[in-house]
């Protein structure tokens, strides 16, 4: 991680937890100790957004795990950025691989969501990443660049400070098969280079690119040492007290 970029750790709870379990997570996060040099954000199920925002310390961000692309209307089952902001929440994760691959969200839809969420004043964590067969057939760069291209077209230059990009290779999510620090760094470095060529050098230098996929208390420090890895997006391991080690991985 480069010193000019603040280390960022997201806990993506996915569809896990109930009030009792969430109280447990809030308790270990509140007890810490958390490195004040890490920006920490918890991605919580939508029905618990307000509960978590009220119970978590103000120093810990809260994120929705998805939202729709318009402020309101006849879209049964969806929530809007305006609603997320209305309950005091600052962030949204968009384009997670489970949204793409389980719910069939396209690059175009994800890009529209990113643009709308930013215009409504939310901070956004857009996710990209290749599947195993894409990596094995040498298409990793092609896939992640085209996912990113759709997204950057909807990000106005003055909104980049509200964006944290998550690179999550699909084959590493929930599988215990973490990308090696070298594998992850290789993609992060190429993403930053691509951003410098396709947005500008300043954005490329400043934007945080975090890694997700089977990050644990054991592997987080090696990942954090890589030059272009600015933190992590953590699924399973964010539900357990060991998550504190991941938050503090850059110490
Ligand atoms: P795991 O950490 O459980 O592999 O999940 C990663 C992820 O999808 C975070 O968004």
From TrEMBL:
Pathway stated in the Swiss-Prot or TrEMBL entry: Carbohydrate degradation; glycolysis; D-glyceraldehyde 3-phosphate from glycerone phosphate: step 1/1; Carbohydrate biosynthesis; gluconeogenesis
Source species, domain of life: Eukaryota
Enzyme class, broadest EC rank: isomerase
EC code: 5.3.1.1
Gene Ontology biological process: gluconeogenesis; glyceraldehyde-3-phosphate biosynthetic process; glycerol catabolic process; glycolytic process
Catalyzed reactions per annotation: D-glyceraldehyde 3-phosphate = dihydroxyacetone phosphate
GO MF term list: IgE binding; triose-phosphate isomerase activity
Subunit structure, interactors included: Homodimer.
UniProt xrefs under PANTHER family: TRIOSEPHOSPHATE ISOMERASE
Protein name: Triosephosphate isomerase
């Amino acid at each position: 991680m480069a010193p000019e970029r603040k280390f960022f750790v997201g806990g993506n709870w996915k569809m896990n937890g109930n009030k009792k379990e969430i109280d447990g997570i809030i308790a270990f996060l509140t007890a810490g100790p958390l490195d004040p040099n890490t920006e920490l954000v918890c991605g919580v199920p939508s029905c618990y957004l307000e509960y978590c925002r009220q119970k978590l310390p103000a120093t810990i961000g809260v994120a929705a795990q998805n939202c729709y692309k318009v402020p309101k209307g006849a879209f049964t089952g969806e929530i809007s950025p305006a609603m997320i902001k209305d309950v005091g929440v600052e962030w949204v994760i968009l384009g997670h691989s489970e949204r793409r691959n389980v719910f069939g969200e396209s690059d175009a839809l994800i890009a529209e969501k990113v643009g709308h969420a930013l215009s409504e004043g939310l901070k956004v964590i857009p996710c990209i990443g290749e599947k195993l067969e894409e990596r094995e057939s040498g298409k990793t760069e092609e896939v992640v660049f085209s996912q990113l291209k759709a997204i950057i077209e909807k990000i106005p230059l003055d909104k980049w400070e509200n964006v944290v990009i998550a690179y999550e290779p699909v084959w590493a999510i929930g599988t215990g098969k973490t990308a090696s620090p070298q594998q992850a760094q290789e993609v992060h470095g190429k993403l930053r280079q691509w951003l410098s060529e396709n947005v500008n050098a300043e954005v490329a230098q400043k934007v945080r690119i975090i890694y997700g996929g089977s990050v644990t208390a054991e592997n987080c420090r090696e990942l954090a040492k890589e030059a272009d890895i600015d933190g992590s997006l953590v699924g399973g391991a964010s539900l357990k007290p060991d998550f504190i080690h991941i938050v503090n991985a850059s110490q």
